[in-house]
Design a protein that fits this description.
Distance between the termini: 53 Å
Structural class: alpha+beta
Order of helices and strands: EEEEHHEEHEEEEH
Shape: elongated
Strand content: 25-35%
Radius of gyration: 22 Å
Helix content: 25-40%
Number of helices: 4
Amino acid sequence: MTTPHPLPDQWAINVNPVANLAILTLLDADGTHREIGFHPLTAPGTAQRAIRALDEITDPELRASAQKLIDSFYQRTAQAKANADAFGTAVPDQQHLFDRLRSELPGTPVDLGIDDEALTIVLTLTAAGPTAGALLTLINRWPGTTSPTGLAYGVTQDLTDGTLTVTFDQPHAEKVLTWYREQP
């Protein structure tokens, strides 16, 4: 059995009873929502409040749900870090590749983000005007862009008002950057 994770210093869990359940929201020191969970069949009279320490929760089942919320946050954070580390290992020269992309596609932001559900890296390239055509040409040269049924799963393209946005999930981002590394 693993040791339960502590509630981080200056963080809180907001308990908000609604009907017969409680919405539990993990808040960081700045009050930003970090994780949300639910506790079913909340006892009548449960009041909305912010908990700063788990021992403030007297109901053992509600306390267990709060602990589960904290543990989920730590697990998701560890998973996101592991995925980011894996991306860094797969593409150790990412800054060089991003600089090359920006040079080849002037004015094109190269953004890395996180898929909040999958906790994986997302690569987004956005280009407007003539640079959008150059981005489309580059992406179409990569053999992993398409599948027999159209765009490959994990690759999206959106053209709105002359601005092309291409998004790659982590596996495809790693593959396209690995491919791009070998291009002249």
